[in-house]
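Reader question, answered in our methods column.
A reader sent in the components of a multi-part assembly and asked whether the whole thing could be modeled at once rather than chain by chain. We filled in our standard form and ran it. Here is what they sent:
COMPLEX SIZE: two components
ENTRIES:
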Amino acid sequence: MERRTIFAGWVLPVCLVAPQLLLTFFFFLWPAAQAMWFSLMRQDAFGIRTEFVGLENFTDLFADPLYLDSAVRTVVFCSAVAVLAMGTALLLAVFADREIRGRTIYRTLLIWPYAVAPAIAAVLWVLLLNPQIGIVAHGLKAIGIIWDYRLNDTQAMLVVILASAWKQVSYNFIFFLAGLQSIPKTVIEAARMDGARGWRRFRTITLPLLAPTVFFLIVVNVVYAAFDTFATIQAITHGGPGKATETLMLKVYRDGLINLDLGSSSAQSVVLMVGVVVLTALQFRFIGRRNAE
Amino acid sequence: MATLELHDLRKSFGATAVLHGVDLALNDGEMLVIVGASGCGKSTLLRLIAGLEIPTSGQIILDGRDVAQLDPAERDIAMVFQNYALYPHMSVFDNMAYALKIRGLSRDDIARRVRETADILGLGPLLDRKPRQLSGGQRQRVAMGRAIVREPKLFLFDEPLSNLDAKLRVSMRAEIKRLQRRMGVTSLYVTHDQVEAMTLGDRLLVMHQGVPVQLATPMEVFERPATTYVAGFIGAPAMNLLPAVLCQDGTAADLGRGLIIPFADGKRDGADGRKLTIGIRPEHIAPDPAGMAMQIDLVEPLGSETVLIGRLDDGELLSVKVPGRAPADALIHVSFPAAALHVFDAETGLRLG
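And here is the structure of the entire assembly that came back:
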């Protein structure tokens, strides 16, 4: 369905669109252009001399084992967050889709975490998992697991994955539930009449019909895990211990704002920007395909 | 092929009772049509038999086994849905093969059976298509094929022709009848369309407000409707129902305005003055110069015949079906032939005699 509003003059439409355009210009296009410009420059540590170095920042970047480590870490982190957040959400959505008592309450509660700010979510997890006072840490100690995510790389990664995925479950849940509800009930009933039950019916009928939602959510979740988890990770581990949870996003921040290597930091953000562009293009393609069907 | 028996089948959704006890027995190979207005419980009845709903109480005996509490997978019943309910992500072949795959048939057996069924239905060239690439009639055929290929004990049809246009509906109706005869599979067919009901069924079950009202052959239902509801529901245009009282020692009906019609088929029970409803079909009302005057309000030409809707002189509504064209006058005279009368009790609506 296309809805089109016809304006008589051009003043009103310009006024309506201008705030958006100005915001986009000042907070996205300008910084982006600046990042691109800085990515071609090298500045000394005191910001006194700046020289043009061409693509040297980029070649340095891709030759830097620390950067490549961070890239691999980011891929692992994103995959784990996407799988965990989508798997959990799908499971919950399948249960919520059934005719159960109080399912309106159940659904509403499941959507709440989405409204929690990332840093607050992180604090919540920190309180739960804190080696000294956390109730989960306490429980783990009781069964003989030495728990300190501030010292143990794997545990630190687990914590940030868990906290990040938890935030995203609600979002995925809404989409999965909507996807499940858009599957015609009679198609499921036809499958029941054909003798399909349980997991087999889910795998051969429900899941294929949910595929567009799944593709869409993969893109959204990867983008989320790569870019929107900065606050969560920063609040829980600051990228540590060592660099164990330093994703590309945290590295941009650390190299630029703490190590003051603006050239390299800008080059890294340009690489990330390209990543976002590619993922967004993919997402638009899937949305386009969805709407076409 | 199988027999089906229902014993006092009841279904309530919460406090709302939808089916108030249905007893029914289907013979092997029979096509029974369940007909009724929407909300009469016919679809619920079908879903109970299918296993998509579990009855509140009662038995469903399929081939001597009570299946009332079983999952659909254990019943061996196939169903054709109103909106076809094809699997949109599967080809026509896979749609038809799905149930066979689940039963673990060999690849060769599946391919053979699907091809045979596709040939019967003329679906051969369409086997690789997806449902969205098919027309409404073709989808309907695939839905039929999906049911047939399973060779189930029982076929259930849930208003399968409602989504088709009028012309296609007539040809699919004939095809369903032909296929059902050929397969000889016991079938239950739910519809609200009385033409489908009359033409398809070996027997009809008329339902009204969750209760079966009449179970008989289509012609019997038409000729001897058991209640005023059935009388008004089956037949188009609907039967005229007029108030009357019993008179002349139960041998005649007094329709007021001095019109007394003796019963052609004998005496009815009850004292004179018992309230009656007299039914007469529009096509049985005869033009008669000596009869009652009727003012024509509306003329509906159907081609070979014409329906006249009008009022008697005391304002009673009446419809009359006459062969050929409408009479030129807006005022005609008609009479009710005694042999064409249907007599019902006015209070219970039940047929008398």
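What stands out: The longest strand of chain B covers residues 286-301. Residues 236-345 of chain B form a domain with the OB fold (Dihydrolipoamide Acetyltransferase, E2P) fold (CATH 2.40.50.140).
Send us your own complexes using the same form.
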